[in-house]
Amino acid sequence: MLKLSRSDSSNPDFQALVRLLDAYLAKIDGEETHFYSQYNKIDSLKHVVVLYENDIPKACGAIKEIDSQRMEVKRMYTAEDSRGKGFGSTVLSDLEKWAAEMGYKACVLETGKRQPDAIALYEKSGYQLIPNYGQYIGVENSVCFEKKLS
Fold it and tell me: Which UniProt keyword terms apply here (predicted)?
């Protein structure tokens, strides 16, 4: 049975999944991990979604405000043994719904070019490629996306 839980970054299941995410990204990004980690602190995220399968945390994501109109999708992760089940899409959809419920007009995000599965998820979910924003301007490995919310 699947269950979604909305929480904040104090959720221990979210924290455990993020540790797995950080280890995964360290393998992919190597030395560049240090650059990205400064922008991926989770100590004050107010909007976190954790997906549970049979009460076991399997996927997560978060959103944080960029400005009065946009939320940024952060810390998306699905446990390696649970990929291919649509859990990432389910979490992302709930994050978008939550952002829309709060009156935001769009979600933006950054991901790495070395993460084709993540890029495929965002494109499949209706995200459009945009110029890199903020701290990602000029970063060769970064690619940024946006989706307008209804």
Answer: Acyltransferase, Transferase
Cα dihedral across residues 148, 137, 26, 37: positive or negative: negative
Q: Which residues span the domain enclosing 54?
A: 2-148
Cα gap 45→31, rounded to integer Å? 25
Instruction: Kindly provide the b/e burial profile for residues 4-33, where b requires at least 16 CB atoms within 10 angstroms of the residue's own CB.
Output: beebebebebbbebbeebbeebeeebeebe
CB 59 within 8 A of CB 51: yes
Structurally, the chain folds into a number of domains equal to: 1
Reported as type and span, the H/E element at residue 72 is strand 70-78
The CATH number that applies at residue 114 is 3.40.630.30
Binning pLDDT at 50, 70 and 90, where does residue 94 land? very high
22-26 long-range Cβ contacts below 8 angstroms, 24+ apart: 24/77, 24/80, 25/112
pTM: 0.92
Q: How far apart are CA 28 and CA 77, in angstroms?
A: 14
Cα dist from 39 to 5, 116, 150, whole Å: 24, 21, 28
According to DSSP, residue 60 is labeled E
Of the pLDDT bands very low, low, confident and very high (cuts 50, 70, 90), residue 28 is: confident
